[in-house]
Amino acid sequence: MESKDLKDIEQKIEAEIAATEAAILNYKELTKPIAPENAIGRISRMDAINNKTVNEAALRKAEQKLKNLKIALSNINDPDFGICGGCNTPIPIGRILLMPHSRFCVQCAR
Fold first, then answer.
1. Residues 59, 65: Cα–Cα separation, whole Å
2. In sequence order, which residues have a C-beta less than 8 Å from that of residue 81 and are 6 or more positions away?
3. Which has more confidence, 57 or 41?
4. Which of 2, 37, 56, 62 is the most buried (most CB within 10 A)?
5. CA distance 95 to 83
6. pLDDT digit string (tens) for 65-90?
């Protein structure tokens, strides 16, 4: 992989890390416990609990994405970076730019 491509990928990963960290902070705010003394109706409370559950799932997914992005960033200078873990062929640069934490080409990811 060319040096310019690696630099572009590194910048993309760093931008994704920053965006994901911001999303995690937002999800943590949205998943705070719902105080029982809040004067909301029973249906509204059930809706708030449901939304909290959805946000908790999104938080877990964002935390996993952040972990994968940090791993990708730390591995960017490895000779195997950009090589599919399944078929050992180069992963297209477009896929790496869209999903820098992906370790597989489209065919192997299916």
1. 10
2. 1, 6, 72, 75
3. 57
4. 62
5. 12
6. 999 889 888 988 888 888 999 999 99
